[in-house]
Hints:
By secondary structure, this protein is mostly helical. Helix content is 55%, strand content 0%. It has one domain (3-62): Arc Repressor Mutant, subunit A. The chain has 3 helices and no strands. Helix 2 packs parallel to helix 3 (34-51).
Amino acid sequence: MKKQKRDMQERAFARGYRAGVERRSKDLAPPVGPVRDAWLAGWREGRADHWDGYTGVSGVHKIAV
């Protein structure tokens, strides 16, 4: 199995980060659980990076794919 399929919380964080940078609503977070917490943490960091101007080419280094 691939590493990204094994660590669901890391994957949720990355998806939340992308949603935050793309200015999507936090209502899109998964239902209750540790995956939701990771998603919201990523969303908050993504929103902060968006507000700080890390969008487009300047934010490429922040995305861990």
